[in-house]
Design a protein that fits this description.
- By secondary structure, the protein is of the alpha/beta class.
- It has one domain: Rossmann fold (3-Layer(aba) Sandwich).
- It is built from 7 helices and 7 strands; from the N terminus they run αααβαββαβαβαββ.
- Helix 4 links the parallel strand 1 and strand 2.
- Helix 6 packs parallel to helix 7.
- The longest helix is centred in the middle third of the chain and has 22 residues.
- It starts with a helix and ends in an 11-residue tail after the last strand.
- Bound molecules: S-adenosylmethionine.
Length: 215
């Protein structure tokens, strides 16, 4: 099938992108890793020995980086609807995070262990129509926040990708209820024209704030 003009443009942009080149040179699976790295270097997301949950992990750049940062005593559990090439030291679950059975599998795998850092880089397939894509992306972010309330250890860290637009302000308020400090980050590797930003919640306060707004 012939490629559309927009996919040609995307390919050209992708090949000339400095972070794509850097990922190749540094042997990372994705350019997305540089978003996490910049946030980590600024805000200190990881510590040695931490337990990390990586939602929307494929192809695995964030998991690879997190593994380097937590070291041998750490634990990484990654989840995606897409398969990934296995990463030694990372436990992977393939499934759609919106499905209860997948959530249950994840809870089982955690086996009562609390998570120190919950990452979500989940993003729905883009239709290009904001009225369709935005609610889907907010929904994934809300599910990640629910998981944070369920699985994070006291003082834990939550980093989630969100798109600015309808529902963003309410989601931001919801995140703030459960954490001592919440900041918005737009790392350099996040394309300027994208509405994507990252919310970073530090100092999880268990039992404080209902995670999802009902109004
Ligand atoms: C931007 S990519 C993640 C890149 C990754 N952080 C990395 O560094 O390699 C977003 C991922 O979210 C996943 N995703 C989207 N919706 C999902 C869902 N409902 N359940 C699980 N994964 C999902 C996609 O399959 C995709 O792999």
């Amino acid at each position: 099938m012939a490629r559309s003009k927009s996919s040609h443009l995307w390919l050209r942009e992708h090949h000339s992108d400095e972070f794509v080149k850097l990922a190749r040179v540094q042997n990372y699976r994705s350019r997305a890793v540089f978003k996490l790295k910049e946030i980590d270097q600024r805000d200190r997301v990881f510590r040695a020995g931490a337990c990390v949950l990586d939602l929307g992990a494929a192809p695995g750049g964030w998991s690879e980086y997190a593994l380097q940062r937590v070291g041998e005593r750490g634990k990484i559990i990654a989840l995606d609807v897409l398969e990934i090439v296995p990463i030694r030291g990372v436990e992977f679950i393939r499934g759609d995070f919106r499905e209860d059975s997948v959530l249950e599998k994840l809870i089982e795998m955690l086996a009562e262990r609390k998570v120190d850092v919950l990452l979500s880089d989940m993003a729905p397939d883009q239709s290009g129509k904001v009225e369709i894509d935005q609610p889907k992306s907010i929904h994934l972010a809300e599910l990640a926040l629910e998981m944070a309330h369920r699985a994070l250890a006291p003082g834990g860290i939550f980093l989630v990708k969100v798109f600015q637009g309808a529902g963003f302000d309410q989601f931001y308020r919801d995140v703030k209820q459960g954490f001592s400090k919440v900041v918005i980050r737009k790392p350099k590797a996040s394309r300027a024209r994208s509405r994507e930003v990252f919310l970073l919640g530090k100092g999880f306060k268990p039992g404080q704030g209902y995670p999802i707004s009902t109004n």
